[in-house]
UniProtKB/TrEMBL annotation:
SUPFAM superfamilies: Nucleotide-diphospho-sugar transferases (SSF53448). The keyword Nucleus does not apply. Residues 3-159 form the Glycosyltransferase 2-like domain. Belongs to the glycosyltransferase 2 family. It holds the Pfam family Glycos_transf_2. The keyword Glycosyltransferase applies. InterPro entries: Glyco_trans_2-like (IPR001173), Nucleotide-diphossugar_trans (IPR029044). GO terms for molecular function: glycosyltransferase activity. PANTHER family: GALACTOFURANOSYLTRANSFERASE GLFT2, RHAMNOSYLTRANSFERASE WBBL. This is Glycosyltransferase family 2 protein. Keywords: Glycosyltransferase, Transferase.
Length: 294
């Protein structure tokens, strides 16, 4: 009934796989498939311990976040695919699989279960990732598609694949969600979370957001995300309003004055999420401007 699909890159996925295995021990129509996207040798050796009944596929070359998800169609045998990021855990949720089985019986097209974070910040150096996750990405708050933990009908996935031109981190899930919406495919949000077991330090988290913004700009420039799609992305809604009232250059000047102060705050033990939004908007405008002047 369900093929559990877990792409890996430089992470020990065994704790997640073994817990999932416990939850499906009484089911004969659920399989676990793991594809390693050319991780470092250390992680390849760790995860290669996953033998039967699991399917473990080792790639020799890194193919990127989108293409590896599409690749699971070559190995999955069930009518539903459950995609999980390799850094999630489900130990806190003993009904994780049974909850998804209930949605299968309801014949839903796409179901997102969300993620949760530690109740307290585990380390001051990861405060931004933790705070953003707690305030923005919890299952009770999310209203749109998230790719870290979702179930999808095979037939739907075969008709709407991830864009394989997106290799690096950021917005492959945004584009996928937009395509679902354009095709009138309903996304159902349920509280069936994974525990986020890997928080990025503040500097790395900001760098990954820059990568994400560059991807977003490329998708716009290649016309894969059109102006009418901006409604699905909060950041682009703000940008569109600035453009409408010819305030983009004024905002850029404001941002250049306060950028260092904002950046310092986001690296601090108590980052301000409003500043984070200002940072992303300012950096997006900068990236967009640089791309048009090259």
């Amino acid at each position: 009934m369900i093929s559990i699909c877990i792409p890996i890159y430089n992470f020990d996925v065994k704790p997640l796989v073994y817990e999932l295995s416990k939850q499906i021990s009484m089911q004969n129509n659920i399989e676990i498939i793991v594809i390693d996207d050319a991780s470092d040798l250390y992680f390849q050796e760790i995860n290669s311990e996953l033998k039967d009944p699991f399917k473990f596929i080792q790639l020799k070359e890194n193919i990127g976040r989108s293409k590896i998800r599409n690749l699971f169609l070559n190995y999955a045998t069930q009518p539903y695919l459950l995609f999980l990021d390799c850094d999630g855990l489900v130990h806190h949720n003993p009904h994780f699989i049974s909850n998804y089985l209930k949605t299968v019986k309801q014949n839903l097209d796409v179901v997102c279960g969300g993620r949760i974070y530690p109740e307290k910040c585990p380390n001051k150096n990861v405060s931004l990732n933790w705070k953003y996750g707690k305030k923005v990405e919890s299952p009770a708050i999310i209203r749109s598609f998230m790719s870290n933990n979702f179930l999808i009908k095979r037939t739907v996935f075969e008709s709407i694949l991830f864009d394989e031109t997106i290799r690096n981190y950021g917005h492959e899930d945004t584009l996928f969600g937009i395509e679902l919406a354009k095709n009138n495919i309903q996304i159902t949000i349920i509280d069936n979370s994974v525990f986020n077991a890997h928080l990025e330090n503040n500097k790395t988290y900001l760098e990954k957001n820059i990568s994400s913004l560059k991807n977003l700009n490329l998708l716009i420039n290649s016309n894969k995300i059109k102006v009418e799609d901006f409604q699905y992305i909060k950041l682009l809604n703000f940008y569109l309003q600035l453009e409408k009232y010819r305030l983009t250059s004024i905002y850029s000047k404001f941002y250049s004055v306060f950028k260092q102060y904002i950046y310092s705050n986001l690296l601090s033990q108590n980052p301000n999420l409003t500043y984070f939004n200002l940072y992303k908007l300012g950096e997006f405008i900068r990236i967009k401007k640089e791309s048009t002047t090259k």
